[in-house]
Amino acid sequence: MSVPIQQRKRRVPKPIVSEAPAPARPTPKKATPPKRVPPKRVPPKPGVTVKVVPSEVRAVPPIQLPRYDRPIKEVINQRRRQLIVHSVLYYRMNTNIVSDHDFDRWCKELVDLQMMYPKESSEVPFAEEFKDFDGSTGFHLASIPWGQEKAQQLLNYHKGRVKA
Predict the structure, then answer these.
(1) Using only C-alpha atoms, what is the Rg of the chain?
(2) Domain ranges of the chain
(3) Is the Cβ–Cβ distance between 92 and 148 less than 8 Å?
(4) How many other β-carbons are positioned within 10 Å of the β-carbon of residue 91?
(5) In the predicted model, is pLDDT for residue 58 greater than 90?
(6) Least confident of 13-27, 92-106, 114-128
(7) pLDDT, average across residues 99-111
């Protein structure tokens, strides 16, 4: 016997009885990093000389020097000549061919090479001009007579290539 649809009892879902809300967990406090305490600077003892090396003064760590497939003297010579020519271009002729980033990279590389190879560095041309070179500026290099002629040649070559 079938019961008409209207007479059937509807099943009403039982209300979900929620339990009491769980007690709120305390939010964990963020760990504060320990305060950095600068190291104490101890003055040198009398009679002790302190030598400051340029790479320790820079904020940037020394660059990773590539492996060279030619003698280190040639690399130092090339970097010195590049810096002289591009210093003349920048400071005397008021133009540049390389970016400041490349020039700074060459300076850092040369400073590091001169520190790592002081004997070889003293045997390469322009040793006196680069004796106390720290890479911060090339202004004093712009007065080297050799660089002025080479800078003009390079500028003429560069202008010819750019127009073509």
Answers:
(1) 36
(2) 67-163
(3) yes
(4) 16
(5) no
(6) 13-27
(7) 91
